Amino acid sequence: MLIQKNLMMRTSLILGAAFSLVACGEKKAPEPVYVPDKAEVPVEVENIELPEASADCVDTVIADGKFSTLAGLIQAALMADTLRAPGPFTIFAPNDEAFAALPEGTLNALLLPESRPTLQRILKHHVVEGTYTSVKVATEKSFTTVAGTVLPVSTTETSVTVGGAPVVATDLPCTNGVIHTLSAVSLPPDEAQ
Question: What global pTM score does this model have?
Answer without folding.
Answer: 0.73
